[in-house]
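Morning - MTE inputs below, output right after.
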Amino acid sequence: MHEAELIAEHVYRQARADEWLWRQARALGVSRRRLLQLLGSGAGAVLIGAAPRRAAARSAWPASPEGDDPFAGWFVQPTPPEYFIDHGRGKEMRWGAVSHREYLTPNARFYINNHYPTPRIDPATYRLRVDGSGVSRPLELTADDLLALPSLTITCAQECGQNGHVFFEQQFGHPFPGTGWQFGATGVAEFTGVPLGEVLERAGVKRSTRDVMPIGLDAREDDPERPARPIPLAKALAEDTLLVYGMNGEPLPPDHGFPIRVFVPGWVATSSIKWVGHIVVSEEPLAAQFALEHSLLIGPDYPPEGGLPGQLATYQSVKSAFELAWPATLGAGPQTITGRSWSGLGRIARVEVSLDGGQTVQLARLLEPNVPRAWVRWEVDWDGQPGEHRFKARATDELGRTQPDAAAYNEHALLYDAVVAHPVTVLHSGGK
Ligand SMILES: Nc1nc2c(c(=O)[nH]1)N[C@H]1C(S)=C(S)[C@@H](COP(=O)(O)O)O[C@H]1N2
Ligand SMILES: [Mo]
C-alpha cells in the first residue's frame, strides 16, 4: 500500500476508533453527552479499559534507596548532563552537543522517554504473543525466532509527538501537560528488525483485521494505562513498520526497548511501543487509554471526529533546529552556522535561514545524505558581530509542508512545527 493511502487511512481509522468508543460507552450505559463530557474532562480514558482504573500504578515501584530522586534507577544507561537535558522520566538530547559530522545519533546520546522504569528483560525467557480475532494462527515467538526471520534496516527519525512542547508554552503563555522538551526529543538511527507484516502473515492475519495493537511489558498486563497504541492494518503491513532488535548496528539498548520494540516510521513515537510482549490483532476497532492520553490532538484546528474530542496524532510535523545550545554563545567573526531539519512525511526540499531575526533570509546549503523521514544537515555562512542575535530556520518538505510562524493550538502540545527565534550572544573578541 502506498504512503498516500496510509495517510488517508488515518482519517478512516479515526472514524473506526470513534465507533468503538461509542459502542463501549453504550455497553456501559453511558449517554453520548456524558461520554463527550468525560472525554473533554480528560477522564474519558476510564471508559476505555473495561477494568477499573488501578490506583497509583507508579507507587507499585520500589522507592529509590536515595529517596530524593524519584527517577533513580529509572534508566539503565547513564545520561550525563553534557549530552542530556534532564526532565525526570524523559532525557532530552542536547542540540549544543550534536556533532555536525555525524548524520546518525549515537545510541548513548539518543533521547529516552519512559512512562515506567525500564524493565530488565531476560532475552532467554522473552516471548512475543500474537493473538486476537484478526489472526487464524495465534503465535508465541522467542527472541531467537524473531532474529531468524527476514530482516530490514532503515534510516529514520524517531521523535516524540510532544517534541517542542516548551515552545507551545512560550507561544501561548501558559503551561501544558507533559514534558517540557525543547527540540531534542528526536534522533535519527538505523533501525534493524523484522517487518511486522512478516509476523502477522505467519499468524494468518485476516484481511478483515481492523486494528493491530502492540502492548508494552513495562506495566502490569491489567493496568489500563499500559503502553499500547492501535495501528491500522495498512500501516502495520507497511514493509518498513518493524519489530526492531538492532539500533545503529548494536543490539537494541535496554532503555530503547530491549529485546524487541515496534517502530512505526514517520509517526509520533508513542506508536513505537518499546519492550513489546503482546500484539492484539482485532477485527473490531481497538482503543487504548495510553494512546488517547498521550497522542490525542484536541484543539480548534483538529475537528472532533465522531465520539472523540479530537484526532489521534500520526505523522510528525516539519521542524528545524540549530546545532547550538539554547541560549547559545558564539565568538565573533566569520563562521559556519549549522542545523538540521526533518519531516515525518518525506525529504526536506528547502531550508530558509535568517540570522538577524527575520530581516534577511538565505537558503541554507543542504548536505548529503537527505533521507526521507530522517533529517538533513544544513549550513549557512555568517560574520558574527558582537551583541544579541536571533536565529531562525524554516524548512519545507517535498510534500510542500512548510513551518508556519505560529503552531496550531492543541491541549497536549503535540506536533509543534512553528519557526522559533534561537537566542544567540556574540562575545566581543578579547584583545583585538
Ligand atoms: N512500552 C513503552 N513504549 C513506549 C513508551 C513507554 O513509556 N513504554 N514511551 C513512548 C514515547 S512517549 C516515546 S517519545 C518513545 C521514546 O522512545 P525512546 O526512549 O526509545 O527514545 O517511546 C514510546 N514507546
Ligand atoms: Mo513521546
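Note: The pocket of molybdenum atom (ligand 2) is lined by residues 113, 160-162, 269-270 (CB under 6 Å).

O.
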